[in-house]
Amino acid sequence: MKSIAISGSPRENVGKRDAKELRYQGLVPAVLYGGPTQTHFAVSAADLRAVVYTPVVHFIDLEVAGVKSQAIIKDIQFHPLTEQIIHIDFLLLDEKKPIAIEIPVKLTGTSPGVKVGGKLVQKLRKLRIKALPKDHLDAIEVSIEALEVGKSVKVAEINLPNLTITNAQEDTIVSVTTSRALRQAEQEAASGKK
To answer: Hey, what domains does the chain have and what are their CATH numbers?
Structure first.
């Protein structure tokens, strides 16, 4: 899985007034959980753009006061009106502990059902997976090569070594439905045969 390096500066004061001052300076208050102690620090809002505003999931190489650690984003709080990031929580990664995160679904191939006029409907754009950090993927590839009209790919059909998908097994990831044009063409063909 890809990683992005972000550096932060430790926070001496932890409170609303301090957090407001940090935001005014273009910084975002942050906390790193999962270690022996919580680490309170501030990161540049500009540095977070590459990690937050993307469908790609990244591990984050954090450096705070010379201490390096690998983490993932656990929670982000946005301002309700401006959509500005007002707080971010990171979770320290442990190579021996599985973590649960959402990974994007990437469709591959061309569906024969779409070629004949069917409509491709992707119901799940991300899947929740649980695995050790070393086993995580950038994306889960789902082939649509065999999808005819009326067929679908369900979560139960995805087999990935060392990963557990925690979505419901009967959930549909992608399907090919009959489009309005195809339905109309079938109706016209049926009425023409009578």
So the answer is: 3-93 (2.40.240.10), 100-187 (2.170.120.20)
